[in-house]
Amino acid sequence: MRAQRSELENHIIDEYRAGYIGRREFMRRGAVVGMSLPLVGFLASACGTEEKGGSSADGEESNKAAVKKGGVFKTGIQIPGSDLDPLKVNNQGSLGVLAQSAEFLIFSDRDLKPVPRLAESWEPNDDGSQWTFKIRQGVKYHDGTPMTSEDVAATFNLHADPDNGSNALSAFTGVLSKGGAQATDETTVVFELDAPNGNFPFNTSSDNYNLVILPKGFDPTTWPKNFQGTGPWRLDKYSPNQGVTFTPNPDYWDKTRSVLPERHEMTFYEKEAAGILGIQGGEVDVLSQFSAINGKPLLTDPNISVIELRAAQHRQLHMRTDKEPFTDKRVRQAVALLLNRDNIVKGLLEEKSDYGNDSPFAPVYRTTDKTVAQRKQDVEKAKALLAEAGKENFSVELRTWENFEMPQYAALVQNDLKAAGIDVKLNITDAGSYYGDAVFGKSPWLDSTFGITEYGHRGVPNVYLGAPLKSDGTWNSSHFKNKAYDALNTEYVAALDLQTQRTAAKKIQEMLLDEVPIIFSYFYFYLSALKPTIAGVNVSAMGHVDVTQGGVKA
Amino acid sequence: MIFLAAQVLPGDVARRILGPFADQASVDALSKELGTDRSLIAQYWGWISSFVTGDLGQSPAQSRPVSDIVVDAIVASGKLALLAFIIVVPLAIAGGVVAAMNEGSLRDRLISVGGLSATAIPEFVWAVLFILVFSLGLGLFPTTAQFPEGAGIFTQIKYLLLPALCLVCVLFGYIARMARAGTIEALEADYTRTAVLKGLAQRTVIRRHVLRNSLLPTIAVVATQAGYLIGGLVIIELIFNYQGIGLALARAATQKDIPVLQSGILIIGVVYLVATLIADILYSVLNPRVRLEAAE
Amino acid sequence: MSVPGQPAPAGATEIGTASPAVVGARSDDSRVATKERLALLMRSKSFLAGAVVVGFFVLCAIFGELIVKDPLASDPINDLIAPSADSWLGTDKLGRDVFSRVIVGARDILIVAPLATILATVLGTALGLITGYFRGVVDDVLSRIIEAFLALPVIIMGLLVAVALGPSKTTLILTIGILFAPLISRTVRAAVLTERELEYVSAARLRNERTPYILFGEILPNVMGPIIVEFTVRLGYAIFTAAGLSFLGFGIPAPSPDWGLQVSEHYSLISGGFWWPVLFPSLAIAALVIGVNLIADGVASAFER
């Protein structure tokens, strides 16, 4: 059997048997490179032992109970920030709605595993510069027309085309260009990439949340009227800014996920507080996401069940490497050492978080090298570094915006830095004022000396390693221009197997700990709240809410 | 005027829509589509010329006609305000009259001081208090005011009652005080004494003369409160998750959605002027002196 | 500005009524009237009660920081602890002491609201004097503009300005100040309309006094009454509005221990039984506004006669 596998796949099998990766990771890695699931499962049971991992909370167990069919399922979700146009969707509310009626090639689930949806299988060529996807047959859109490989190619080219102004364009820059997706026959789509990429399947998955597969004649002016897609839910009614209702799609292709509830009603909440009060008042069955600090009542309420997913969502505290006082890396290291990460993880986030070690490599990623020591608070060392660098008792403005726990994080940073005589002035505004025009020179996000920016979850760290840290990165708030880093980034992206990725990761982690252009102090869990009488809800750390198997407990 | 003020707002509309992480090329493409890359004058002219013909244009942030957005929002807020007024006006006037009739008594004190204190407590405090007690505690009312589509009138009232009560609390004191002052003045006025001397029962006197005159300052107050009310609406709509004009304007401000801002504020201004006008009319209708003159 | 010398006429008990007969005596009348009014004020129960309350908060604002724990000192692991001996009013979501934050929170609001009201009063008075005195075209044009401003909802405008210029105490003062001015100008205008018909004004004109002198030297002192009343009334509203804008996040920015801000940061927690970070700041706002209103009441009655 081994003889038939590609070199890459053999490497993965070897890693598994040698114990480098656990069973879970083996299944995940195998899936990423396209090994079929039954095969992976067979190999896993043949070769290895079970591994403990993931998250566990009471909500988990409760959520697994059997449910009664039928009923109206109510979900509370953040208000969509824009139209429900797949090209424009850009916040959790809108992506959650989008994914009800439309689907992706691959679904990135809560274990960061790629699950085949509209793609049945996929595989790379030898160096990962070309990926071939087999498209599922027999799938129809809600209006009855069949979904074909041409639709798939058209959808990808639509988003990769700069003239269309898609939100997903930044995910494709340097990865896939317009025309890079081609339907070679009815069942196959080939992606010609701009550069070898070992994690490309995640670009085609729900991680890249705009990429729902659309009919090739997609028209953005008519689409919002019917939300045309292949998904398990059909649009019933959309009330902008208020909510949206869906009814089941009786011709849905995936019979293992036939829709149980009769209706799905989603309510939009303008402010997080309203959602928290809403679920406690019993107005919704599920609240798709809440933050630990504002949602403490939900964590302590015996009438609410909480699901926790370990995730990679985080805040980047950037320091301009090209501006005083942060030009000297010793100053940046000092700031990183002054932060009391225990306070943050245990107090601010109520322990619903992993520790961050100043790089995008979150503990939840298997590619993260866990041998790199976790940075801890050390006020004395910080003071010494500041003295060495000759920068003591300076004043600096910290900018961020009003969102979840970010203002409180800023307050904690201000407090922690006081211990070394650094005077931090807070400037907390709304999102619009913080992001400005989102280009260098016109955006506090990118121009500020010291700022906090939010980053949502992704199944792989590629996005975080790229735009915010590369010399030519469009999201590079710290103006970090380091050729060595760029080279390491390319090394990581091109790596096709876990071991090579991990080696590159370790080098990046160590370099970033030393240079520390950005402080990553935490990666917080994704929290959802459920009524304890409800089960069968499948949430992802991205914000997708799948209630097809949901309902009142039987 | 509003156009210029809004232009000062930082930020580019297309960028706001797509968010900070979208590629710049996408943003440029959208700008072109929206016409926001035209010069200021071109934009203003375009807007004004359509406005007078009744076409309020498209909201760039929401790709819906502005008229839809603004009208929906105003109707929603209108319902809330109407419910609040229906409750507070009779209640406050009755309270003011009773207080005046029993001037100096405990009843008077309670109503006056109570009303004053209620007004001093900000709307958001009332909102939080009501939610805590009536929604979460007693489970009588929903925590959000957004009633489901097609709900009947009673369901709508059930959803809107708590936010309306917040408005009532804030308005009660002031209106009651005006009513009380007006009643006291009327009670001491010549024509009342004349009426009593003529032998009319007190009740008739109240009804015919006193009430009418205490209504006058009250109406003036209510009309001027209309403008202030809009501000309070923003807070209440935010807490109760209700898509009214306050929330719509707040959102438009942060999204730099100028058409919605301009139309919204203009329409509020119109509503305010109309309210003042109605108040003036009612004033002259109810003012006996004016009517007497007319009769002569 | 007042003419010294002439003894108060025998009818000193007639407080505030205009004695058209003698020009100079009028100023004296005002001085005497002021003394009488102050005496009245001191006797007014509501004024005294209000003064006590407001005085307490003023003390908090000035000396607060010296006697309480640091309101910005966070201790997130000990967040949301109920009121206890160690922390009298409990701790907030970042472990900061609520009692300190309530006390020190008085400072920002007692800087912003009075300054804003003073600005509004100054502007409003100037506008009122001008429109009331000149009438005619000037009045018409200015009044229309003023009315236009009146139609603008304060909170929405506050929001716009905060978004444009960034939320800060200064923008808040400017916004509230400018937007409250029209209301005050209307009251002043009404008073001026009455005053201008009085003989002392025509007398001044006959003496060829310059207009600014007539406005500010002659008329202004005599409309001070209504102006002061307006000031105290508007002050209450200014506090209210500032708290509201801070609640929305467009007023006094974090991490200020401003009361409105504290309520907005914590109200989602009340359903978890964490009532103290919301209750105490709310009580503080209410107490301060009631205090100011009581003062306003007292002042209004003192000037009514």
What this model shows, in words?
- The complex is a heterotrimer of chains A (554), B (296) and C (305).
- Chain A has 554 residues and is an alpha+beta fold.
- Helices cover 31% and strands 20% of the residues of chain A.
- In chain A, the strands form 8 sheets. Chain A has a 7-stranded mixed beta sheet. Chain A has a 4-stranded antiparallel beta sheet with strand order 4-5-7-6, covered by helices on one side. In chain A, strands 17-13-18 form a 3-stranded antiparallel beta sheet, with no helix packed on it.
- With 296 residues, chain B is an all-alpha fold.
- Helices cover 79% and strands 1% of the residues of chain B.
- Chain B has helices at 2-8, 13-18, 24-34, 40-52, 66-101, 106-120, 123-137, 153-188, 190-197, 202-239, 245-255, 258-286, 288-295, and strands spanning 58-59, 64-65.
- Chain B has a two-stranded antiparallel sheet.
- Residues 1-11 of chain B have low confidence and may be disordered.
- Chain C is mainly alpha-helical.
- Chain C has helices spanning 23-43, 45-67, 98-134, 136-151, 154-165, 169-195, 199-206, 211-248, 259-266, 276-304.
- In chain C, helix 2 crosses helix 3, helix 2 (45-67) packs across helix 10 (276-304) and helix 3 (98-134) packs antiparallel against helix 8 (211-248).
- The two termini of chain C are 24 Å apart.
Provide keyphrases for this structure:
heterotrimer, A: 554 residues, alpha+beta, seven-stranded mixed sheet, four-stranded antiparallel sheet, 24 strands, C: 305 residues, mainly alpha, MetI-like fold, elongated
| Strand fraction of chain C | under 5%
Backbone shape of chain C? elongated
Count the strands of chain A? 24
- The helix-and-strand class of chain C reads mainly alpha
Architecture per CATH nomenclature, i.e. the level-2 architecture of chain C: Orthogonal Bundle
CATH class of chain C: Mainly Alpha
Work out the helicity level of chain C: over 70%
Mean pLDDT over all positions of chain C: 78
